[in-house]
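Posting this for the archive.
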Amino acid sequence: MTAVTSTTDFSPRSPDWWRQAVVYQVYPRSFADADGDGLGDLRGVTERLGHLADLGVDALWLSPFYPSELADGGYDVADHRDVDPRLGALADFDALAAEAHRLGLKVIVDLVPNHTSHRHAWFQEALRDGPGSPARDRYVFRDGRGASGELPPTDWQSVFGGSAWRRVADGQWYLHLFTREQPDLNWDCEEVRADFRTTLRFWSDRGVDGFRVDVAHGLAKDLREPLRDLGPLAQNGETALATLPPGAHPLYDRDEVHAIYRDWRRILDSYSPPRTAVAEAWVPGARRALYARPEELGQAFNFEYLQAGWDAEEIRAVIADSLATARTVGASATWVLSNHDVVRHPSRLMLPPGTDDNAWLLADGRAPGVDEAAGLRRARAATLLMLALPGSSYLYQGEELGLPEVADLPLEVLQDPLWEQTGHVRKGRDGCRVPLPWTSTGESYGFGAGGAWLPQPPYFARYAVAAQAGVEGSTLELYRTALRLRRKLLAGEELTWADADRPGVLAFARSDGWRCVANLSDAAVPLPPGEVLLSSVPLDGDGRVGPDTTVWLA
């Protein structure tokens, strides 16, 4: 990897484009519906790519569009090298990639290597062929405990609740760290490794520019006999990772996983330009950096920033630590405020410290209530702060419209398996997956002619693209202006903190005099000298920066 300097080229033509990119996550089933069946599809994405080009992002990341029964929103994949017929065909993907490239957009696809769908041909073969067969070696099958094997092999727990083991008709059990429809693959099996090498080449050959690797920390597992129980740590994976010595968890973040990604990097680097990759790895920062090494995936998601509260000291510490950690391996940092798994940030950032997101969702967003306008103001400030940071920013579809979480979805319409899998304890992630509003009128606000697979609230009308495009001061125009300015101002990956005169204020400088001041406090503070390039809300002209406001200056 070449050294990054103030003259490093981060343009779309450069192999380093990803280091400072703005990537827009598309959840295809909720983006746009071209065929009118109520479910978003690839043709719908293609028809709306102009929106992304106008927004000014560098790339789109497509969440899974593969054949799936949607037991986990598409992350239960029945074929990693095809398109779900409800979303289109391979020809539709090729058309999408071609149009994206014509518009100057890179294409990143989701790769789901930890597990398959139970409908995958391999798993169906494993069920037919029985214990001891080569087909079963592709997955994690074990005999049960107890007098007749009636007990699960270990106490390991599913992320979605309950045992991570499910028994099949012949008496054996298979491992599923997520839903029971998502059997885990056995990455000790060479056939599994070879198949994913084929998958990487398949999509790279079709013009894919990069991959987002789902559950990147979960592939390598300690499957030596006897399998180890986790005891009290079984109920909480994050606690177990923090408690056990690094690399010692039997299921997550094992040191052996890095050999897989070094192997992948050789494939990704065989293309010109090299294909990029980013790890979804829910592990502590120092361990996460290992996935971002140049000889592995190159970048990893930074979830500490997403999880930080609206507190200047906490956010500054997270930023400083994230930049330092990325720098140790020559990677660039990543920043994200919303995605398909968390409460949208205009709502989340308004929740009092210590609020349980799930309890808030179960109360339909009413306990506590969230001031919609105040939440949007805070979200705009958070976004402008994020976009000023060195590294790559990942946007989630609809955040450019300021969409809040749809917290009051009726229980009978919920689709997320979390609701059923946890015995109606966790409401799930449907509230951030409600289909986008494109127009202010119509049955589905322009999403498609046949309604939407999740109900959209009436207030979506005022957030629609058509209601904001060209409207001065709208959230959509703020994003467009910020991304246009960011591209002009971008140089190098350095950040220099400035002394803030008041508590609750973050201030730092980038290159060529670009400065960012974010007031996270509840009182106005003096505006530093300099030309105001952009502010998250209009300034009052009194020489002050109001609460929950971010300003870019030159």
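The radius of gyration is 23 Å. The mean pLDDT is 95.
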